[in-house]
Protein 1
Amino acid sequence: MRISSFEEYELAYKKSVDDPEGFWGEVAQNFEWRKPWTRVLDWNFDKPDIKWYVGGKLNITENALDRHVRERPNQPAIIWEPNEKDDDPVTLTYKVLHERVCRFANVLKNHGVVKGDRICIYMPMIPELAIAVLACARIGAIHSVVFGGFSAKSIADRVNDANCKMIITTDGAFRGNKRIAMKETVDDALIGCPTVEKVLVATRTRTPVSMIKGRDYWWEEETKKVSAECPATEMDSEDPLFILYTSGSTGKPKGVVHTTGGYMVYSAYSFQNVFQNNPGDVYFCTADIGWITGHSYIIYGPLVSGATSMMFEGVPTYPDAGRFWDIVERHKVNIFYTAPTAIRSLMGFGPEFWKDKDLSSLRVLGSVGEPINEEAWTWYNENIGKGNCTICDTWWQTETGGIMISPLANITPTKPTYAMLPLPGVQPMLVDEKGEEITGNAISGNLCIKFPWPSIIRTTWGDHERCKQVYFSAYPGNYFTGDGCIRDKDGYYRITGRVDDVINVSGHRIGTAEVEDALNSHTGVVESAVVGYPHEIKGQGIFAYIIMESQPHEPELTKKDILATVTRIIGPIAKPDQILFVSGLPKTRSGKIMRRILRKIAEGDVSSLGDTSTLLDPAVVEEIKAAAGIS
Ligand code: 7RM
C-alpha cells in the first residue's frame, strides 16, 4: 500500500484506528507468504504478549531477494561507495546479491549453523555485512549485529547474553584515514566467549591477523566450497529475525528482539510511505548497519521494497567535508537520510563543500536519531534541499523497529523541528506525570503508544521481565517510549528528547548507568555520576562527576587514563566530553543522586537549581559549583 495524497493519509489513518486488523491485513497482502496467517493480531500489553500475522509462514529474504530476482534481476539492490573517493563503487544487482547471500548461507550451514542459532556480526560497512545479515535470515539464524565501534568487552557481553555460536567479522576496517582492527578486537572478546565455536573472517584491509585452526575460517575460501543455491528456510511470523542491543537507563544494554512477519511488513510499509521511493530512484541512508536505522532502512525496508540502497563505508568528513554531497552528485541520489549531528557538523565547514555540487537529483531529505534543532533544519532545507525537498524528521526507536512519527514525503505538511504526524497504524498518546492522558494541545508530556504496530519489540532477549518493566509498566496498558513530546494546536508532534537516564550523543544511545559502571571500574574511582548536557554538534555531550579516593596529582593525565578505561570497556563513543573531580555528590536522604542538579551545573545554568532542601548535605552543591568554576 502506498499513500499518495493527504486525503488518502487521513482515510488510511482513520481505517487503521477503526479497524486495525483489517488495515494491517491489507498492508500485508503486498508481500509473499508461504502460508497465510489465520489471525492478524493477538495482543496483551500487560504481559506483554504480542503476536502479528499468527500462523503465517514466510522467509523475509524471499521478499527481499527472490521476488525481485524475478521482477527486476538487473536493477541495483545495493550500491556500495568505498572509503576512498578514488576507488570504484561496487554495484550488486538483485540477481548478484541473491547469489552471494545464498552462497554465504551455505557456508553458514556447512559450519553447523541451524535455524534459531544466534550469530554475532561485527563488521565495517562493506557489502559482506549486508550479505551476512541476509544469509542468517535465509536459514533462520538470528543475527545480532554489534556496531564496529564497540570494544572487545562489549562484544563479549552481547555474545554471551545471546549465547552466540559464531562471530562473523573482517580482518580490519577503513574509516576515513584510519585503519581499525576488527579480528584482533574479536580475538580479545573470544577470551571470554565460551559458546563461540567458529569465526568467519572476510578480508578488507588485509591486515595480518591470527587464524586458529578449527575455529577461524576465511570468508573467501569458504564461499568457494559451496553452491550458489540455497532454498530459504520457512519461518513462522513470530520466529525471531534478529536481536539488537540498545542502552537503557539502568544496567547493561538489552537485546531487543524483532520477529519475522511483523518486522518485514512494517519496515517495508514505512519505507515506502515515508520516503515515497519510485522505481529507478537511488536512496542513500548514511547510518551504520550496526544500529537499527541501518537494519530497517539500509537493508530490510528498501530491499523488501525492491529499491536501490546505497551503502557508504567511510565518514562524512573524508577526504573532506563534502563527501556526502560528492556521493549524491556521483550517484544522483534522490532520497537522502542522515542524522542531525552530521548536518550540524557539516554546516560548520563552510559553503565551499556544498555550493558547487550538483544536488538537483534530491527530492526527499530525512533526519533521524535525535531532535533536529531549527538552525540545522533550515540549513538542510535551504542548502541541501534548495527549498525543493520535503524534510522528513522521522521519530522512532530500536524498539519500534520502524519509523512511527514522520511526514510522508510531499504529502504531509512540514514544520521545522516537528516530526509532524503518526503513520497510519500508530496511535500516540501523551501522558502527564500522574499518568493521565493529555488531549489536544500539550506543552509537555511523556510519549506512549496505546496500540500495537507490527514491528513492536516482542521481548528483551533472555529477560522478558525487563521488557515488561521498562516499556509496559510505567503507564499500564501502553507502550512507554522514554521520550518527552509536545503537541501543537494542529495536532503536530515534536519530540523533545529522553525523559529517562539515557543520553543521546550524536544520535547514539548511551545509558548513564553503563558509563558510570565503566568509570567506577577505573582504579581510584570511588563513585561517579554521569549526565547529558547540550552540545553544539553532538546534540548531547557526556558530563562525568567523579569522586576519587585521593585528589589526583596530575588531573589531566588521570582524566586521559579514565577515558582509556571507558574506551576499553564500552568503546570510544561512550567517552565523557567533560570530567569534573568532586569530593561529594548531591544525594537525597535515601541515597539517590539528584541528577537534576548535576544536569543544571553541567549546563552552566545554576540560576534555578530548584529545591535542594531534601539533600543530605546541601554544602556539596556549593563545592561542585566551585569546582566547575560557577558561582
Ligand atoms: C532510530 C533511532 C531512539 C531514541 C528515541 C529518541 C531519539 C530518534 C528522533 C529522536 C527526536 C527524532 N533509534 N530520536 N529519532 N528524537 N526526533 N526524529 O535513533 O534506539 O537508537 O534511539 O532516539 O530519544 O527514543 S535508537
Protein 2
Amino acid sequence: MSKKYNVAVVGATGLVGETMISILEERNFPVDKLHLLASSRSAGKTLKFGKQKITVQDLSTFDFKGVDIGLFSAGGSVSAEHAPRAAKAGCVVIDNTSWFRQEEDIPLVVPEVNPEAIAGYKNRGIIANPNCSTIQMLVALKPLRDAFGIHRIIVSTYQAVSGAGRRHMEDLAKQTALLMNGRPADSKLYKKQLAFNVLPHIDVFEDSGYTREEMKMVRETRKIFGDPDIRVTATAARVPVFFGHSESIYIETRDPVTVAKARKLLKKAPGVVLMDDPAKPRYPTAATEAANKDAVFVGRIRQDLDSDRGLNLWVVADNVRKGAALNSVQIAELLVKEYL
Ligand code: NAP
Ligand code: 3JM
C-alpha cells in the first residue's frame, strides 16, 4: 500500500481552508488523518471530509507532533506564531500568507514555474505559497519567458472580493442588496462603496504610494523567476466580482514575439487553457470561465502596435483555487512525491 500522510488544515473554517479540504478530497491526496484547526471561536464545530465528519480543534492548543504536512491559511500573524512551532515538531508547513514569502531561505513556489525550489523546505520546514495575483500571472508568462525572455511586465488587476475572505463577500452581497433597494451601501469593511464600483486599493499603502498587494506582485515575481532585475509594475484593483481575478498584462520581451507563436506555446502550457479567438469573439472571463475551475485562462493576445517585442494578454483564474488552495495542494503533491 502506498504511503499516507497526516495533514493539518489551519484556517479550516475559512474560504481558503474549506477549499483546501475539498481539493484534498477531489484529488485523492493520500491523507491518513486529517486535522482541522481554527480559532477557539470555531473549535467544536464539525466539517465534512468525504464521508467523515471531523471536529474543528483550537490551533492555540494543538500539538503538531506526528503531523506530516500543515496547510496554513489563517492570516499572517497566525502563521508567524504557529508555523515555526509546527515546523519544529516535524510538520512541513505550506503557508498561504505573505508572512514568510520574502525570506531568503524559504522557498516561494508555483508548481508549473519553479517546482525545483521545493527542495528548500529543508532549511526551515516552511514553503510559502505566493499571492493569488502573482500565481496566475506567472503560470501564463512562464512559457513566454522561456521562449522569448521577459524584460518588463506592466499589469493591472481586477480582483474578486473572495480574495479578502468570507466576511468581505458577505459585505459585498449586503451592499448590493441595499443599493438595489435604493438605500446607501453602508459597508462595515470598506471605506468606499465596492458594489457597482472599482476600488484601486488592496492591502495597505506603502511609503512609495504603491499598495502592498501591488508590491507583492513585484517582489514575488522576482523571487519565483529568480530574476532580481525583471522590471515589474502593478496596479491592483478590487472589483465587485465574487470569484476569479482578471489581469491585463503587458510584457516586453528580449527577443521578437508574435501572437501566433505565443498562442502555440500557451496552447500546450501546463495549467493553462487558451481561449483566444477574436473572430468569434472568444475570450475568458472570471465568472463564466474561471470560477470553480483549476486552470489559468488566457485570451485577448495582441501584438504591441509599436513593437515586435511587446504583447498584451488577458489572464483569469479562480483566486481561491489556483490562487491559493489548489496551488498549496499541488505543492503538497510534489512534496510527497519527491521528498517525503
Ligand atoms: P477567511 O474566510 O476570513 O477565514 C479565515 C480563517 O482563519 C478561518 O478559518 C478562521 O477561523 C481562521 N483564523 C482566524 N484567526 C485565527 C486564529 N487566531 N487562530 C486560528 N485560526 C484563525 O479568510 P480566507 O479567505 O480563507 O483567507 C485566510 C488567509 O489565507 C488570509 O488571511 C491570507 O493570509 C491567506 N490567503 C492567501 C491567498 C493567496 O493569494 N495565496 C488568498 C487568500 C487568502 P475561525 O472560524 O475560528 O474564525
Ligand atoms: C491575501 O494577515 C492578514 O491579515 C492576511 C492578509 C491577506 C494576505 C496576506 O498578506 O497574507 C489577505 C488575503 C493575502 C495574500 O495572499 O498575500
